[in-house]
Structure formats: structure tokens, C-alpha cells
Amino acid sequence: MINGIGKWAIAACVSLVASLAVAQERPWEQFDYPAINNFDMPALEIFELDNGMRFYLVEDRELPLIDVNVMVRTGGVLVPDDKVGLQSLTGTVMRSGGSREYPGDALNELLEDRAAVMETSIGFSSGSARFNVLSDDFSDLLPVFVDLLRNPVFPDARVELAKTQQRSSIARRNDDQGAVAGREFQRLIYGQDSPYSRRIEYATLDNISRQDMLAFHQQAFVGRNMMVGVTGDFDMDEMKAWLSEAFSGIPAGEALTLEFPGVDYEFTPGIYFVDKSDVNQSYVLLGHIGGMRDNPDYAALQVMNRVLSGGFSSRLMQVVRSEMGLAYSVFGSYGSGIHFPGTFTAGVMTQSESTAEAIQAIIGQIERLQDEAITDEELAQTKDQFLNTLVFQYTSIASVLRERMSNDYAGLPPDTFERLVEEVSAVTVDDVQRVAREYLRPDALRILVVGNDAELGDQLEVFGDVNSIDISIPEN
């Protein structure tokens, strides 16, 4: 039996807990936040040498460091089908093999002694090189960096080592469930023979020679294909003199034209399956072709994507994961490519027995975006989150400068970021529903499941005839 004092104590505790719960619902509203400092980008200076090399310079005296980033107009899009992987091997061995004056091991030792970094790589649509060094050592090591860019030797031993490492990657490419799903989904969207879904095989690797790497490098690393960004602790006039002297000896060469073929895509649905018997869950990707970055609806599409799949407050996370308990992870994106169309993709990791239910739940949320307008509160929250996260993409002066260079490389206007902020701020509830109806096709999704056939049973048949995908690795 509870006496009067006990009843009073219980009531007081209940009242206190209730008060704390109310206070903790929005604790941030109790805080006084200082005003956010404005980010003032230091002055940018751009100049060009007679050989066509373009330079972007921004002083940043915060740390005694200088950071150099080079963008090169080249990429895997230039590589023929029988030599897929040439660009990545070239980028790897450029650095690992070093130059005649600074061979790989000697270069490693020199950089280690000076706490400096030099890196090179070549991707599908561009190449890059980076040089980071203490400002006091910059003038000594700049000629070393230029020599590496201009005169790599691609020694046979380093070429063979890079090939051996790549062969190991090919042998292990089916180990990771997510990697298998991502690779095969690309092939479902772009086509088996598309340059956008090609993959390195043992046969293409065997076709690549040291001479191929030399030729690929010589074609790309010339003045008319190179842009150089420099940030750090330097004097502007002195830096311009150093760069002019160091890079003026690079030949102008011929400007490369990167031609990105169109994507022949038809909105046709299908269900595809990869049997991976060593897993106890399904990795699902579903979607179709996406769009291009220059689409006037780009901002509205990105807001729509955030509503659907942008983090813990998104509909997929709230419904599929939190309310229905169907997912370990659920995600998505509406991709808008610069050079070729991206993909609209939604994905989920779920238990084998709940695979079909999870797929149907995702499709239901896509249809809901088309059928029901989002709320004003949901739009405001989504736009706030989007705009706030944009800030963290540019955490340093160097990252802002790289973005400017990337925009120039892609042919986008210099104020692309500022325009995006304005366009996102202007997106309305009607815009979100309009683009969902115009660009999403829940009736024509290509669905890929990588999972355990023995555990899945026949549940995928509800989506149509199941097409099995063979992921065995060709020996030659």
C-alpha cells in the first residue's frame, strides 16, 4: 500500500519526467547560437602560359603548406575495348615507377624525408596529379614534380607489379556483395557493351604493354590538356614566376577531345538475380536511367531525391527501415551526370525472407511521391538539410578552388554553386511532385537482387520472370 508521501513522490517524479521529456524534444531551441562567420574566399588569380597550361592561384597563409592539384583532359573513355584498364594502370605506374632522374624508390625516400606527397591517377573522364609540401621546400621539389609529370619511365618491373595487383583484384571482384550489385546494375542500365559499364578482364590486362602506357601518357600530359590549381602559403608574384619557369618547358601538344557516346535506353522493367550462396541477406538495387547535370530541373530533382532517400529523415529510412523494420540499410539517389546520364537508383540490404516485401515497400514510396504532394514542413526541412550539407562539401580554400577547376573542366559556369543554392531555395511543393511524376518510372524499374537462392525461394517471381546473371570470371 502506498502512503500519502509515496503518492506525492510518484506524482512529482512523473511530473519531472514529463517536463524533462518536453524540454528534451527540442533541446536545441534552448541554446543561444553565435552568428556564423562569413566565408570570404581570398582573391583568385588565373593566368595561362604560351603552351596552353592554365593556372589558378589562391593564397592561404593559415598553414606553412602549399598544395598543387593538376587536372588532365584524358580518361578511360579514350581507351579501346580490348585494352580496358589502360588509363588506371598508366596513372598508377606513373607514380610508382618515377622518372629517370627520380626512380620510384628514390622518389619515395626523397618525399618521405621532406614530409611531402606526390600522387597521380587517371579515371574514366579525367586524370589528376597532386603535390603537397611544406612551403619552405616547394621551390626545391617543384622540379621533381614537373619531371614526374613530364618524364615517367614506366619500368617493366613496376608495370608487371601493377598488373599482378590488378589480377588479384579481378580474382576477388565477386567477394563483396555490394560491389557485385553495383557493377552488375551499371551493366543493366547502360548495357553489357557500353563504355560506361566496361570492366577489366584478364584478357584486356594482357593486351596492355609498357609502350601503350607511354603513348597514353604522352598524348595526355601536354600543356593544352592540363590545368593547375595552387593554394597555400606563398607570395603571388613569386609563385607565378616559379610556375612559369617550371612548366613552360612542357610541350603544348594537341588538345584532346573526349567524346562520350549517348546511352540507348528504353524504359523496360525486369527482375534480375545473382546467386551468392555465402550470404544470408539480399542486396537489392532498383531503378532506371537518370539525367544530366545541365537539366533545368536539377535542383528540384535533388530536393525530391532528399525527400525520398536523403538520410535518416527520408521516407525510405523512416518507412522501410524504422516503421516496417525491413532494412539494415536503405538508400537512393537520382544521378545527374556531366558527361553522360546518371542513374536513378534505390537500394536496400534486407534479410532474405523479406526481400520481396522490401522491394515493394520502396516502390510504394516512389509511387507515393507521385500521388501525394509533400507537406510544406517536409519541404522546408529537406531544403534546410540539403543547403546545410552543401556547406561541408567545401571545408577548405583548396576544396573551393578544386570545385572551380572542375566546373571549368566540365564547361559549367564559375558560379554553379551559388546558382544551385538559389535554385534549391526556390523549389516548391508542386515542383517536387512534378519532377517525381515526370522523371520517375516505378512501372519500368530494373530490379537486381544479389542474394542466396536457397533462402529466397520463389518470392521474386511476383515481379516477373527472373533473369539469372552469370558473374563467373573469364579466364581469358
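The above is record 1. Record 2 follows with the same two-line structure.
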Amino acid sequence: MRPADGDRQGAAETSGRLKAILAGAVPRVCPAAVALIAVDGSVVAAAAAGELVRHADAQGTLAAGRPPARRDSIFDLASISKLFTTVVLLSLAEEGRLDLDEPVARLLPVTDPAITPRRLLTHTAGLPPTRRVDLELPDADAETRMAAMVRTPAIHPAGGPYLYSDVGMVMAGRMAELAGGAPLDALVRTRITDVLGLPDTGYRPSRDVVGRIAATEWKPERAGPGCVRGEVHDETAYALGGVAGHAGLFATAGDLLAFGETLRRGGGPVLRPESVAEMTRDQGAEGAPFRHGLGVRIGDPGIVGPLEGAYGHSGFTGTSLVIDPARRLTVVLLTNAVHPLRGRDGIRELRNTVAAEAAHLA
């Protein structure tokens, strides 16, 4: 059925408001931004603004070529990767290949039997926030660095208060590999992206799509010239070969929206509804500035704006995914706010403004 003229006009007006929001943030907050808002599975607003590559160096020198951001542009998802790791783990739990409450020590060289997959996914395993194995082991290969990561000792008792830990999510990804009998990137592909038909989502994107990828930070220690583009921004994920449980995935806004919609609708065909219900249930992590599910944040004030009760995750590069089942909303914002350097102001405000626009459209 062709949309009526009024419907087309309404869609143009809503997308126009979203475009104005993004344009107001570019380039002050981020050089490039793409946002999608879906209500009950239908995209009601879409916008792109800015340039995928704006700077050539840390001093802000304008790049010679500055391709515009488009709806099919690809961004480094950063910590939104954690949601994909979580879905893989839950799918393995459905098959009985692991138990969320069994000791991680069954598969990993972890001495504390109180560390479980559930505690890894709720950041209550007592593990440190990060570990720079690239600096500790500058000449080691990815396999040696991963072996060091999974042996990282806890700094607090497991089951204690919330402490956000990339180390814990790296362990979760490694546990998925051992339980699933395949590398994490293969598990994400066979259990999520191939099943859902997400052609632009994956680790270590091919050179064929670099022209569609948003640049991130200036990192002179990397071999390539200019700002990082097409390689994971996160130093630890890069040191682990570009594939890790906490970071490494790249995707378009459309692919991420489809993933979010899958969760909003109950998980099929990648998860059972009861698994999504457990994933999005408040797991009682004490000390968190929001409620925490399995791998997801519930009511995170940094991303949900007025969408109280919505869940999702943010990414350090300037990305966010927000899912609000009560309002039938899925909201995607992809930016490269770390280009050419991290530390920009305004990304929290932009995320919440986009969420507020979504609330207006629900």
C-alpha cells in the first residue's frame, strides 16, 4: 500500500526534526551522526549528518576527502558489542552448553568459584574495569594476550557491588568460544547476523567497505596513516586481534535497529522469549547508577532521556541503542564522537535529545 500524502508529509516532518537535532550537534559533538527511530517496527524518523572523516590528525587539520554520513554508513559500536556477546551466551545457555550460574572456572582458569556468567554479565564479578594487555605485553600475539586477560585476578569479592568491567566481558566472550566450540566472531555470525540478515554487522570489516566507515581517534601508534578507520578503536580489543566480548563490532544503524527490534519483539529467531525476559530483568546489581539486566542497562540516564524503563547500552565511540517495549520503540544513534580525539562534551545530551524525540513520536 502506498502511503497517503499526509503520511509522507508527516514522515518528512519527523525526520526533519531528527535531522535538525543531529545537525545541531555536528561537528561540535561529533563529526558524523546517523539516527533511526522505529515505532512498532516501522521507521518513523531517520537522519544523517556530518562527515565520516573530518580530520587528518590530532590537531584537527581538515582531511582532504570528507565523505558525508549516510544512512548506510558503518560505525564502530564499541560497548554495544556487549549485547551481542550476551545474546550468544544466552543462546548457548538455551542449548545447555553452559549455565548462567555455574562457576566460570569450569571453562576458564579462574580460581574464584563465585564468578559466574551471570556475574560477568551484571558486572558484579569483582573484576577490574580494564587491563591494558597491549602495554603489558607489547610483543605478544593475540592468543597470549587473551590468556593473560582471562587470568586477571579480581579486585573485589564476586557478588559484591557493581563495577563496570571490560575484563569481565572479555571473559564472557572467551567462555562463549569454549562452550560454543568456535571463535566469537563466528558465533556472532552464525547465531545472530546470518540469522537476522545483518550484512553490515561484524568484526574486522573488509577493505571493501572502508569507504562507508566513520573514522575514530588519531592513534599514532597504529601502523596506518591518519585517524583510525575500519579498525576497532578500543585498545584492548585491538590488542586481542579485533574480536573481543566487550568491543569490536561494526554496524550500520539499520542493522542495529533490526537487532534491537528482535529483542523488543521477544528474541525470535535468535533467542526464546524467556531468555529475553531474563536478559531484561533487573538482576539486583547493587551500586549501579541504573538497574542492570544481563548485559543491558535498564533506565540508564545517560541514554534513555524520558524513556523511563527502557533498556539498552551505550558505546565509548558515541553510540547508543535504546529499546522501550512499553512504547514499542527502538532508537539507534551512531556517532564518531572520538574523532579525532576523545573527550568531547555533549554526547550525553545528544543521546537524551534523540530519546526525547522518540518519546514524542511514540
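Confidence is low (pLDDT under 50) at residues 1-6.
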